[in-house]
Amino acid sequence: MTRMNRLFLLLSVFAIVGACGCSPKNENPEEPAFERYVQNLEIKSEILNTKVPFSIYLPEGYDKDLDKSYAVVYMLHGHGDNHNSWNGNYLHANTKINTLVKTSGLSDMIYVFPEGFTTYYCNYYTGKYAYMDMFVQELIPYIDANYRTIPDRQHRSITGYSMGGFGALALAEKHPETFLCSAPLSMSFRTDWQYMSESQSGWDQQWGKIFGGIAKAGAERLTDYYKEHCPYYQFVPENRETLSAVKWYLICGDNEENLLYANDTLHVQLRDLGYEHEYRVVDGGHSSSVWMPALDEVLPMFDHYMNGTSAWPACAKAMYKKQDVAFREDGTAFSKAYTGAEQGLGVYLFHKALPEQTLKDVMSVLYTVNTKYLCVYMPCDLTKKSVAEWVEYYGALYPQNKRAAVCMEGTGASVMADQAPFEAMLFVDTALGTDISADPSRKYYFSCTDESACYADYGTLYRICKRGGIEFEYRVINATGEPEDILRCADQLKSYIPY
């Protein structure tokens, strides 16, 4: 058979196959696999006259149960990041969500990650770039129209880190009719005095372009438009009823260079004015080591309010651990290495007539099982002796080359006024009095609950330590109203005994 004949025969076969209605290709290919996480989607914004990218994470089974609708969580990124950063190299929100669904019973929800550019999620003061209007008037309606959301305020919450933290607060602050819950994480904003002292380039490039006051200095930067968005000027008595409709949650790391000033100042203002909110201060700086663990509480909190689940606030309860302690007849306790014959660290536990069992429980939380440390733990009831008298009394009984003071309810002011004997000061949910001071030669560790009466005192001590370059650790945990709160606060400080 010639080459021409073979070619003719092959073409004839294809013609016959085609005439029979057959095809070598599959004319009904299978549907593409369902993707839960879809990146780099976009909407065309008429308000901004540009495309706005976003990513979305859908529940498992979203493609199967077509009659089910879901609550929505908007997750905002920080300055310099983008709409994919929540699931980038350092943040793994999808993994965290999956873990919480499997281990904590977190409800299935839709998560939206919008592009925020460098807008702080606000409208520019010039009116030329109305990002917040786009978010509320275009993005949210687009998500509700194209995905099976429950399209109402009761089932919509927002969180974000850094710049996204400001956006989470500002969007809910300006649109409380749109969001049920807001959780700013390490919210990027400043106190007035910080804004006034910001470098000119820092102000102009990051804040001035949004709030106005470009090329201005000092108080001229605090424009009316800035005050319309700044929480210090919005969380005021006349707005309490409106803004209290939102469930607020704030968290910050105690190693933040600037932001804890602002966040802690806001917490004090909210407490002073009676705004209900959740507040946490944890160990850490401006990093994922703060934001990712925060989701362990934030997402169940959203779920609790939006879907009526019960995992929160139980998951917000700080845990504590007591050690087995052999108490001596006088109520003291020795570490395993300390025999009472050699010098060691004297830990003075100041209290005012605490029940014996509570005192033992606190000592058991603070006690170390490390066999190399020489420590003696000594209960000091300030209703019986003064600070100086207890130091003299125990100093004669047990050799000490260092001293640390642990101050519990009712004793902070007395010990603050007589710091000289101690190298380290630990304050466990106790007021500090009117004369709060810190010495660079000492170390300060303090913890309280977010409903503590000493919230303003701790904010003051934090600022003194931060500005003075004094070693400190600051913690604020969730208040449960249980007697164990004192043990939870003590547990936050136990790693600093011995120091």
Description:
The protein has helices at 3-19, 93-104, 131-146, 163-174, 192-197, 200-211, 224-229, 231-234, 240-243, 259-273, 288-307, 311-314, 356-366, 387-397, 412-416, 455-468, 485-491; strands spanning 37-45, 50-57, 72-76, 110-114, 156-161, 181-185, 247-253, 278-282, 333-334, 344-351, 375-381, 400-407, 424-428, 443-449, 472-477. The protein has 499 residues and is α/β, with parallel strands linked by helices. It folds into 2 domains: 37-189 and 230-314, Alpha/Beta hydrolase fold, catalytic domain (Rossmann fold, 3-Layer(aba) Sandwich), CATH 3.40.50; 333-496, Alpha/Beta hydrolase fold, catalytic domain (Rossmann fold), CATH 3.40.50.1820. The strands form 2 sheets. An 8-stranded mixed beta sheet has the order 1-2-4-3-5-6-7-8, with helices on both faces. A 7-stranded mixed beta sheet has the order 9-11-10-12-13-14-15, sandwiched between helices. Helix 10 (259-273) packs antiparallel against helix 16 (455-468). The longest helix is centred in the middle third of the chain and has 20 residues, at 288-307.
Provide key terms for this protein:
seven-stranded mixed beta sheet; disordered N terminus; 499 residues; Rossmann fold; alpha/beta; 35% helix
Draw up the topology in text.
Layout: H1 3-19, E1 37-45, E2 50-57, E3 72-76, H2 93-104, E4 110-114, H3 131-146, E5 156-161, H4 163-174, E6 181-185, H5 192-197, H6 200-211, H7 224-229, H8 231-234, H9 240-243, E7 247-253, H10 259-273, E8 278-282, H11 288-307, H12 311-314, E9 333-334, E10 344-351, H13 356-366, E11 375-381, H14 387-397, E12 400-407, H15 412-416, E13 424-428, E14 443-449, H16 455-468, E15 472-477, H17 485-491
